[in-house]
Specification:
The structure is a homodimer. In chain A, helix 4 runs parallel beside helix 7 and helix 5 crosses helix 10. Chain A contains ten helices and no strands. Helix content of chain A is 73%, strand content 0%. Chain A binds a DNA duplex through helix 3.
DNA sequence: GTCTATATCCCGATAGAC
DNA sequence: GTCTATCGGGATATAGAC
């Protein structure tokens, strides 16, 4: 059964690549792109560095693969949301999901300034397609919620979208977690609350 | 007049150091700590790299000096605010100042993960003292505004303080600026509004 | 495809003349 | 204190055997 054998081999390869990407994801979340070294990734995965380069041609490609992974997860989460539910509920669910992923240490933090990394990401079809789809979906819900008078209609929808995206690198989460005074769930609710309702009294 | 001569020399030195720190500040804002190279700083200032090390003993010290500069500016701004003014007004003024500095490209962005840099900063008395003073001052205003029912009293004051600090690295500003659709002043007001009033409709 | 070993380069930091 | 020239370490990426 040569076909099955090939398929099995490919499956092993795919599993290994997933392990690599998962590792990169964690390291990116912990230390960021510049501080993460390829040696480190190889050590965590348990293979030689040279083997890594058989799967990914550069450090940037590694990071891009991690970003694609997270983007796919976001797409899957969004797709699983009921489309008939109120737009505002779905938006809050997405933001809560983002905060939970970040607090769990699974949200890669990329320096927005790194040019080589930006170039690699922009050239990555999977990533860009995912970004477009997520933006479209959230953008639709934002406008819907604004039309219903739930979200502030004076704000440009794009500003609200960016505000959501920015939750993926909000340092308030880490600050509060470092303080040790609050549980993760409390932190999520606090940040979620300030995001939608602000810090003013009502 | 030997004394005057020495004083003049020292003044030149101080001026040069200020030029260095200013340059570091801009580069940190543009590229971040890891991407910034010491060669680059030297080239921008117009002196040899070795000369830099006569003023600052390491790259971390350079970054710390830039952070101290910004902290001093924040302290000066806060000190200039009328203490008899409503606490909420002063808080908004500080946040607005922070957003303007960041948008102007004068807010150094430090990777919160870099351990050597964190250690250097924590060991820097000027920086830590400044941080304490700023935190105390803002913390007082926050509690005052909460007591008056202007800021949400259900939020821990520390969470509100962190939310303010986080504006110094809010990517929404760059995102909106990159889009080119809004003036800087508009961007500042939008972000300031979402910070205090959230994105929900009122 | 995986490994060991190495090439190559970049960057922080220093030596030493002036 | 400023310069030129250089060291030394560490990181990305590759060569070549298996």
């Amino acid at each position: 059964m040569p076909i099955a054998k090939i398929s099995f081999k490919q499956q092993m390869l795919k599993a290994r690549e997933e392990a690599i990407v998962q590792t990169v994801n964690r390291l990116l979340a912990e230390k960021g792109f510049e501080a993460m070294t390829v040696d480190e990734v190889a050590a965590h995965v348990g293979i030689a560095k040279a083997s890594l380069y058989k799967h990914f041609s550069s450090k940037e490609e590694l990071a891009a693969a991690a970003m694609v992974l997270v983007m796919r997860r976001a797409q899957a989460f969004i797709k699983a949301l009921p489309d008939h539910a109120p737009a505002l509920d779905n938006l809050k669910a997405v933001v809560r999901w983002t905060l939970e992923v970040k607090l769990a240490g699974d949200m890669p933090s990329l320096p927005s300034q790194n040019s080589t990394l930006r170039a690699t990401l922009m050239a990555n079809k999977d990533y860009m397609d995912g970004l477009m789809e997520v933006s479209d979906r959230l953008g639709g819900w934002i406008e819907s919620a604004q039309a219903k008078g739930q979200l502030n209609p004076d704000l440009p929808a794009i500003a609200i979208l960016y505000t959501f995206f920015a939750r993926a690198c909000d340092p308030v989460l880490e600050f509060l977690k470092m303080g040790g005074l609050y549980q993760d769930a409390q932190i999520v609710e606090m940040v979620l609350g300030t995001c939608f309702e602000g810090i003013n009294a009502r």
